[in-house]
Model the fold of this input.
Amino acid sequence: MIRKLCVAIALSTLSVFAIAAEHTVQMKNTGTDGMMVFEPGFLKVAVGDTVHFEPTDVGHNSQSVAELIPAGATPWKGDFGKKVSVIIDKNGVYVYQCLPHTMLGMVGVIVAGDASNLADIQVKAEPFIAKISMNKERLGTYLAKAK
Ligand SMILES: [Cu+2]
Done:
């Protein structure tokens, strides 16, 4: 009985890993959305998926923005010019930034599952957006794609 249960747990754990997908976001000086961008800047994933942030160009990093991720989600902070891989562990909307280029609008959005916290994120993003001086509309554009 216990052995049967262990096998069942092992199999269900395996199936969770089997369906978890991997995504790659490039950190670029120039991309389809302009200068200093994450590409794609808007990404839809499933909870449990992994997102790899690739240093396509040097001098960038990826880190989650405090207060702009789902409650209880694990924040991340990648080193400059280094790849960072993040397992997205909670449902909802995540806003992240490249620290040296936040003022240039180098930000991105990930939605895991559904955008259940979108209204909350939109309100909390206002003071953050106010500090961006170039490509100010970019974050709002990405958030508008969140559903
Ligand atoms: Cu950057």
The CA atoms of residues 4 and 66 lie 44 Å apart. Residues 36, 60, 98, 100-101, 106 surround copper (II) ion (CB under 6 Å). The chain has one domain: 20-144.
